[in-house]
Description:
This protein has 419 residues and is an alpha+beta fold. It has 2 domains: 3-45; 63-417, Cysteine proteinases (Cathepsin B, Chain A, Alpha-Beta Complex), CATH 3.90.70.10. The chain has helices spanning 3-25, 30-40, 57-60, 72-77, 136-151, 167-173, 191-197, 239-248, 260-263, 272-288, 296-308, 331-335, 341-344; strands at residues 116-118, 163-165, 204-207, 221-236, 252-258, 269-270, 314-324, 327-330, 351-354, 357-361, 373-377, 384-387, 392-395, 403-413, 416-417. The strands form 3 sheets. Strands 1, 2, 3, 4, 5, 6, 7, 10, 11, 14 and 15 form an 11-stranded mixed beta sheet that branches. A two-stranded antiparallel ribbon has the order 8-9. Strands 12-13 form a two-stranded antiparallel sheet. A hairpin with a 4-residue loop joins strand 12 (384-387) and strand 13 (392-395). Helix 10 packs antiparallel against helix 11 (296-308). The chain is globular. The model is unreliable at 1-54, 84-104 and 180-185 (pLDDT under 50).
Amino acid sequence: MEAPERYQFVLILFxxxxxxxxxxxxxxxFSTRLATALSMLSISASPITAARAVDYRTYTESTPxxxxxxxxxxxxxxxxxxTVLSGGPGAGTSAMPPxxxxxxxxxxxxxxxxxxxxxxxxxxxxxLDQGSCPSCVGWATAAAANTVIAKSxxxxxxxxxxxxxxxxxxxxxxxxxxxxxxxxxxxxWQIDKATTLLTKPQLVSTLVPxxxxxxxxxxxxxxxxxxxxxxxxxxxxxxxxxxxxLWKKGGLVGNMTTLPTFNRYSKGIYDHSDxxxxxxxxxxxxxxxxxxQNNPEIQSLPQKMRSNFSMxxxxxxxxxxxxxxxxxxxxxEYLSPFLEEKYRKPLESIKLNxxxxxxxxxxxxxxxxxxxxxxxRADAPRYTYTHSSDNKVYLNDPIDDVxxxxxxxxxxxxxxxxx
Length: 419
């Protein structure tokens, strides 16, 4: 196609799309029209763009979405962490007794930490996507190490957002496989195995651009001559110590039993039991109607839903980047981990009473959850779940029974320490 014809074609295409936008303008709110129009013109529209006119309850009400972000099969593929505390399927023996701290683990020093804290965006990696691969332990461990390096000032400034230890090195060096069907026959992977690998000096660093490979995982390009080595790794069980480490040192790696309710998380503070009640409640109302009292099929649906949403889970590892200790919080703080200040500042006068929660950065891309993040309730009630692999009932592993840390990380370039 010659240049004049190409320009004419682009102009016609633009006019067609503009006409469609005018039609939408008579049907939808402005924020929706704007986001739709930008997407039509192939301009990347951030979710924040359309959030300006959104009521704050959009982010605070912990109502699960009606449709999962992933199919049930895709969701299951992404769960690859061993649930070591409850001894569920895929569990293995940890390097140390579950719930025990290592001798050099950070100690709880009382509540000297601020009541709300999140690692600044400038000190943590981009939201990445592990793809159709149960490599969450590798991604969470690498990302947490990245934040510790950043907070210690050892990053090269122009790479600090992207630069992190190679998650695929961790995953494959640990004897794991990743393909279109996920891992086969190896079960979940323990986080302490990944953090221990970081004590080896040969681990190269990685530059991770935001593009996908054939299995959906974020690609990486090796930065030659760079190595990362942690001098200390271990576990923390004291919640004061967890919060102090996040505030002073950097990210932690948490692992929890993850059921289909988490696949439907989009806002608020996640608590499986609470989400399950909200998912099942509409069906319970329908079943309670007089017209349905003698319908056994409808009467059985609420319990079937509870059973279906309480099985087929697995262990999932994520990087913990912050916390709220509980109590009163203003909306400016609450929204700060994922929303620009100019959009949340007008909501500062709104005060809410919230339970304590952890702020995690997941490895499922930026379209899941709160732009890739999630708020998970601290000290959440324990619950049981049934695993489809053996149809047995297990007690769940909460995210905050034990967390894993890496400290005193040395970064070298061509054998010399990066200061």
